[in-house]
Amino acid sequence: MRGEMRAISKTRPEPGAEQIVAPIPQPGVGEVLVRVRATAICGTDVHIYEWDPWSQARVNTPRIFGHEFCGDVVEVGEGVTKVKKGQFVSVETHTACGKCFYCLTGLAHICQDAKIMGIDRDGCFAEYVVVPEFNCWIWDIDISDEVAAIQDPFGNAVHTTLATDLVGKTVLITGMGPIGLCAISVAKAAGATEVYVTDVSDYRLDLARKLGADLAINPKREDPVAAVRKATGGVGADVLLEMSGNPSAIVQGFDALRKAGFASLLGIPSEPIKLDLADAIVFKSATVQGINGRRMFETWFQARSLLKAGLDITPVITHRMSLWDDFDKGMELMISGQCGKVILYP
Where does 155-290 sit in CATH, by number? Predict the structure, then answer.
């Protein structure tokens, strides 16, 4: 397909973004061209928009960014055998090399040469985007555009939450961004008896309650460690799902975790943090699992099964806007924290 398209690009190494007209990308060998139906704003996109120190060190400009989306395959490149023109897909946004030790041992999600859409290659804040065939998830169940567009964060929630057995367990989730919010529903579906959550945003704590949180704690007004211990008869939570990356939340999470508990960590601190390793993990006999992205494609099958069984994550989506008319407004909402997931339609 030849022609031009609209896109949102980080054109210069400074805060903000610009709407541009760019050539429609052409699929190469093993690649497909997708017409974007819906996309969503991720916290990573906010970092790039604000041009924080991480973005300055990680992203080269110009770059069309964005990586959460769904769409229709409109063209296939040479060598494509699985994906067909006209199919509706979501996309795994971590591109694996398929050759390194990790890829060859079933750990492609931590490929040593992984490339990320919207960071290392042009992303989905555009009318069209080229992606590898391997990364396409072809939908065979009835699913809305907006839910299909947020399989990246939903998959993160699924991967983090299902890292351990939750049947009959009490679960503490620190951080009520969209991933933490999704994790409430996943934990309940996986058999958790009670889910406790923490966040400093009352707006997001209200969303958490709507999604089924049994106890929603604002650490600005209440000691979360004391609250969790009280709720568990002084024992502490069986499982910690850390989604915030906030140093205080991480310390509080480990303090609230019971002895021999399990901690699943997804949140990324902006700088090294101080943690008493002896008390938090060693003497507590805690098991700690780091989480990176989504397992390819085990996590995707798990997410599909949960959705097919009726798990509803639509309450996480609070705003629906135009990619072209409301992009800056969507970013401002994300920065303010007065939203759940923001969906943008091109």
Answer: 3.40.50.720
